[in-house]
Known about the structure:
Blueprint: E1 10-18, E2 23-31, E3 41-42, E4 44-45, E5 51-52, E6 73-80, E7 84-91
Antiparallel strand pairs: 1-2, 1-3, 2-7, 4-5, 6-7
Amino acid sequence: MTKRLPKRRYYCISKRYDDKVNINRYFLITLDDKPADRKVRITDVDNYGRQRFTLGDIWNQTILQYAKSDICVHLSTEVTADDGDIYEIEFN
């Protein structure tokens, strides 16, 4: 959940393999318009204006599957555009 990101109607999760360090890197992509070639979800906003993004698509591929308590997720900006943004998801 976050209030800090610009409000976008759609989002999706993507991954890219980084062969320099032999790991998958995960990205949150937020969009204003629904793309025709990608499965997206509608961004859920609660009564306090916080956006909620579901990480179920990558849950079993990351350290999240071993979580016994809360995990801090940091989003660092990769690309910003008028119609969408891309953030790298970092798990701490």
